[in-house]
Model the fold of this input.
Amino acid sequence: MTNVGLFVDGSNMFYAQKSNGWKIDYKKLYSYCQQSGRIAVAKYFVGFPYYIDTKSIGTYRKFRSVLINIGYTVRDKEIKVRKAYYWDIEIDGTPLDDFMRKKNKIRHKGEISITRDIKRDYKGNLDIEMAISMITESHHFEKCFLLSGDSDFIPVVRYLRQDNKYVICIA
Done:
């Protein structure tokens, strides 16, 4: 019987589902992969919600428990929140970049507007951990399912295929 590895980039799949309007049934996915052989490794990698977001933490904990009960090992770490400050500057209602391009054509009346905007970037990147796990645990499987649309995994897929692993990418 063929041994199977299943690796899920949770963050990538979350956003794929959200943007495409569909849902992944991880129990059915697990069962589908079992049709190819014995599941030797099933891992789900994801960043979990920022500690202040208690509603999302509760939802995530339930989801995590479901995954574990199905048979996945969940590797998670807290999402890092990075703040980026953006300054919007307008001169007479014209964005600064446009004003500078047209400076010979626009006469400045003296109205300068400066606004600050804060944009948050959430990062729970586990790509390196997932790549290392796929390589270090490759001796446990002959066939591997990778769920991710991230091109960062192309070198890992090439490595596994050179090691005679049958790799199926689902993105």
Q: What stands out?
A: Residues 83-119 form one domain. The first strand starts at residue 3 and ends at 9.
